């Protein structure tokens, strides 16, 4: 008996081994085996098939052992991973290894920690009065703050929000400040509680659900285009309930579950123990346990981030990709796959319904809907008829030079109009969110005499001034140096330019001395506990103004927020990336959607130096259709996706080595171009990152097939690069940096 094996290493291709007769009953598709490979007597391999004959001229070696009690990969998952291997140009062993949860690669597949019944946590009566006494127990305070904001919630939600919550919760229970209640899971075959718990649908939601139900049982991809607050999640929940009633499984992908822990809670509350959650907040043993529940069929619904596309849900009936436009679905490190696109392939392989949901779909998804490849479902209005917030634009270019109406510098780029709206909102007892996608106090420090710009020693980027810590920091590699007022080169005085969230926070506090202001970015919150604590306090309306980066823009639902201010809408427009305008529009639409989600109408103020930019002008009127039309026309002229396919080749190494390797790749590619076009080789936009020089080549073609000959030519060079640099292929690259 022969077996085809992918070895868990960065090695392209698969290998054929003999199976000893004693192991034949155990060697089945999708199992892991130990095989001799190179100098290793027991490398991990994945069984992918059973060839009838061995390759010519190959001396076969024997499989050494079988590592698992049962196959870790189902047949559909093996097909999905083989497709991804071919399309994304990734060694198969890397993909199969990445498809398993951390820790499972180092242990047998059949054992994991036991999973408890569904548990709920809740604050006890009078617990709010004990918060001040928990000053020396920050973890307990964070848990109690979250429970006071959310009430009785599934423990899964609490663990998604605060990954290390369990010890703190146990301590709170002992103090009589919280309680934990266990509910036994429903017996197999029992009716799921979804129909009883589900709210009434709007006509648009009902129509969307009816279309999904009609398509059940066959591969049908849908684009669910719904404005922020239109109830897309409820459509997902009820579609999944109907799939489960037919005995089918479900898979739900979300961009960043750590930023929206309530989503895990909503699914747990609706479906109980039938839900397994896979995300980075769980420990490796916990992720193993959740994965195992899915593989054994003890849970049939999986909610997770991009890697959950490989979750072992059997007999999938519906796949949901929420916020399908989000860049988090693209894996940038390791195997460069896109989870949304793999969801399309998996739905086709499993004959499942696919729901791609977004208020601002990616242009690739929109074009697929226009061409009839996806069916379009629309939710044009918010639930309960709440209006979309009014958006006002302030042109900052008219306020240069300190003329009438100019913002005072100590107010951190807050225009008079934004300052006025902040005062009005505070006076009305309502909440505000201020968004700026730049951390720090000042984004650039220069010498007034010699012009020296403080840059990172390891990356080709400017250092950001963080005033609270009095340091200059690189946001890519973490390099940090103390700030001095004198230039180290000439002794001249230095000054800071640009505005970050830290300066905006200081400006708001100067403008509104009595307001309760908090900042939410990766400098202000060091972990999930801090993040959950800030969001909980804001949800309980203990904060008046929340200043932050895109962490404040995604998925949060705060009924008290009636004002959203975009401090500077231009930060992403200047990036050397053809998707810059699309990302800007999507981010503005998402952050604007945080306003007016309660009983009061919302207002949004966008500050910009480029009010005429389509991304900003269309966001002002919530006009996604107009923006998409113009952007698609521009991309058509330049053959950018979705009007063409792209492959990026990224090179990292020493300065001389990266250049030599990139030039060798360029020479190898030219004879194989055919219908493809090559841009480069050239230094990357970030020429140096973490001490390594970076070059890239970009290939554009009408279709993916036209890029295959180019890849074959490049792969021969990449196997032994002349400069010793690392070479990475990226099909359908998301970032150009």
TrEMBL record:
Transmembrane spans: none
Entry annotated with the keyword DNA damage: no
UniProt binding sites for Zn(2+) 2: 456, 459, 474, 477
Domain annotation Helicase ATP-binding: ranges: 213-379
Assembly behavior: Component of the replication restart primosome.
Entries under NCBIfam families matching the protein: priA
Homology family: Belongs to the helicase family. PriA subfamily.
The name this protein goes by in its record: Replication restart protein PriA
Annotated organism of origin: Anaeromyxobacter paludicola
Lineage summary: Bacteria, Pseudomonadati, Myxococcota, Myxococcia, Myxococcales
């Amino acid at each position: 008996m022969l077996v085809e094996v992918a070895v868990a290493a960065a090695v392209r291709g698969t290998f054929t081994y003999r199976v000893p007769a004693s192991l034949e009953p155990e060697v089945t598709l999708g199992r892991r085996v130990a095989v001799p490979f190179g100098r290793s007597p027991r490398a991990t391999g994945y069984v992918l098939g059973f060839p009838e004959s061995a390759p010519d001229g190959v001396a076969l070696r024997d499989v050494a052992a079988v590592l698992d009690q049962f196959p870790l990969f189902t047949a559909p998952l093996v097909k999905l991973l083989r497709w991804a291997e071919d399309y994304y140009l990734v060694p198969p062993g890397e993909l199969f290894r990445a498809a398993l949860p951390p820790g499972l690669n180092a242990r047998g597949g059949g054992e994991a920690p036991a999973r408890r019944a569904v548990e709920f946590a809740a604050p006890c009566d009078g617990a709010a009065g004990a918060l001040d006494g928990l000053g020396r127990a920050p973890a307990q305070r964070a848990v109690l703050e979250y429970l006071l904001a959310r009430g009785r919630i599934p423990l899964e939600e609490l663990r998604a929000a605060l990954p290390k919550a369990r010890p703190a919760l146990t301590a709170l229970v002992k103090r009589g400040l919280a309680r934990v209640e266990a509910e036994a899971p429903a017996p197999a075959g029992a009716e799921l509680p979804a129909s009883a718990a589900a709210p009434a649908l709007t006509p648009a939601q009902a129509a969307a659900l009816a279309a999904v139900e009609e398509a059940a049982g066959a591969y049908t991809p849908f684009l669910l285009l719904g404005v922020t607050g239109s109830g897309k999640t409820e459509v997902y929940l009820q579609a999944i309930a109907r799939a489960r009633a037919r005995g089918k499984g479900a898979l739900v992908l979300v961009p960043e579950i750590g930023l929206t822990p309530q989503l895990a809670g909503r699914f747990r509350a609706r479906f109980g123990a039938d839900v397994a959650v896979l995300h980075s907040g769980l420990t490796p043993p916990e992720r193993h346990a959740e994965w195992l529940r899915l593989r054994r069929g003890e849970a049939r619904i999986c909610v997770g981030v991009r890697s959950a596309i490989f979750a072992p849900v059997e007999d999938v009936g519906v796949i949901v990709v929420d916020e399908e436009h989000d860049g988090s679905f693209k894996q940038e490190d390791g195997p460069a796959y896109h989870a949304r696109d793999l969801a399309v392939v998996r739905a086709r392989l499993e004959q499942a319904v696919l729901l791609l949901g977004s208020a601002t779909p990616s242009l690739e998804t929109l074009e697929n809907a226009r061409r009839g490849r996806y069916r379009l479902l629309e939710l044009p209005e918010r639930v309960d008829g709440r209006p979309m917030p009014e958006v006002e634009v302030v042109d900052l270019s008219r306020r240069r030079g300190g003329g009438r109406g100019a913002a005072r510098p100590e107010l951190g780029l807050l225009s008079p109009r934004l300052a006025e709206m902040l005062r009005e909102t505070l006076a009305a007892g309502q909440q505000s969110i201020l968004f700026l996608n730049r951390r720090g106090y000042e984004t650039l420090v220069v010498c007034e005499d010699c012009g020296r710009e403080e840059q990172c020693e390891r990356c080709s980027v400017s250092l950001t001034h963080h005033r609270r810590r009095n340091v200059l920091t690189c946001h890519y590699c973490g390099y940090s140096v103390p700030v001095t007022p004198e230039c180290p080169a000439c002794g001249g005085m230095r000054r800071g330019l640009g505005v970050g969230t830290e300066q905006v926070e200081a400006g708001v506090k100067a403008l509104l001395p009595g307001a309760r202001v908090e900042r939410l970015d990766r400098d202000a919150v060091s972990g999930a506990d801090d993040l959950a604590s800030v969001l909980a306090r804001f949800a309980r309306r203990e904060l008046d103004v929340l200043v932050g980066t895109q962490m404040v823009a995604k998925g949060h639902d705060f009924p008290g927020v009636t004002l959203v201010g975009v401090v500077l809408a231009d930060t992403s427009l200047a990036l050397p990336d053809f998707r810059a305008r699309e990302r800007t529009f999507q981010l503005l639409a998402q952050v604007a959607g945080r306003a007016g989600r309660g009983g009061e109408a919302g207002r949004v103020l966008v500050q910009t130096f480029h009010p005429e930019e389509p991304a900003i002008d269309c966001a002002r009127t919530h006009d996604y259709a107009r923006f998409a039309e113009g952007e698609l026309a521009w991309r058509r002229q330049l053959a950018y996706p979705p009007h063409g396919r792209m492959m990026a080749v990224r090179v990292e190494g020493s300065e001389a080595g990266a250049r030599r390797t990139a030039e060798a790749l360029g020479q190898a590619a030219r004879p194989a171009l055919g219908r493809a076009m090559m841009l480069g080789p050239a230094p990357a936009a970030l020429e140096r990152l973490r001490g390594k020089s970076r070059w890239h080549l970009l290939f554009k073609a009408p279709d993916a097939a036209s890029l295959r000959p180019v890849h074959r030519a490049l792969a021969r060079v990449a196997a032994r690069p002349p400069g010793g640099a690392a070479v990475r292929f990226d099909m359908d690259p998301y970032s150009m940096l």
